[in-house]
Design brief:
7 helices, about 170 residues, single chain, alpha+beta, about 25% strand, 4-stranded antiparallel sheet
């Protein structure tokens, strides 16, 4: 992972929000979501499917702006584009539909999630894998002596990997 470039922030000490962001990224990459936020079972399953895509995320913090009790982190993030993977899953389900008819709903879900992970992992290994460069901002607010995330909606969007988009 890229660390902060000295020319971007000078020789000053690293801003606390940068440390918070970097620690968050490291925790996310290890898979221990509960350290970042309370994840329900569905979110945990999604994370397991996307864990290898998450490990491919790269970032560079471009700038930190602090004014009063607000700080804005400007970040360039390189994210795998998994557009079309959902359609590949639907094609696979359709192909094996006769065999799946006898399965229970929980078995279907388990099979679908397994296939989806396989499709995503194959896509990530492909030489044709495309990356998107995203420029995002995360807003922090200082509450007493601690910095807390105020708005990370742009950051959260990158974890969709454009899966919902069709080719």
């Amino acid at each position: 992972m890229d660390k902060i470039l000295k020319e971007n922030i000078g020789e000053k000490e690293v801003h606390p929000t940068v440390k918070i962001f970097e620690e968050t990224m490291e925790v996310i990459k290890t898979g221990d979501l509960n350290k970042v936020f309370e994840a329900n079972e569905e979110e945990k399953k999604s994370f397991e499917i996307l864990e290898n895509a998450i490990k491919k995320i790269r970032y560079r913090i471009k700038e930190v702006k602090e004014e009063n009790k607000t700080a804005i982190l400007n970040i360039n993030i390189k994210v795998p584009n998994l557009k079309g993977t959902k359609q590949k899953l639907f094609k696979m389900i359709k192909k094996f539909q006769p065999e799946l008819i006898e399965k229970s709903e929980s078995e279907l879900e388990e099979i679908s999630l397994k296939w989806f992970k396989q499709i995503i992992d194959e896509e990530l290994k492909s030489k044709e894998l495309v990356y998107n460069m995203e420029y995002i901002t995360i807003k922090y607010k200082k509450v007493e002596n601690e910095w807390e995330v105020e708005d990370d909606s742009e950051f959260v969007k990158i974890f969709r990997f454009r899966i919902e988009e069709e080719n």
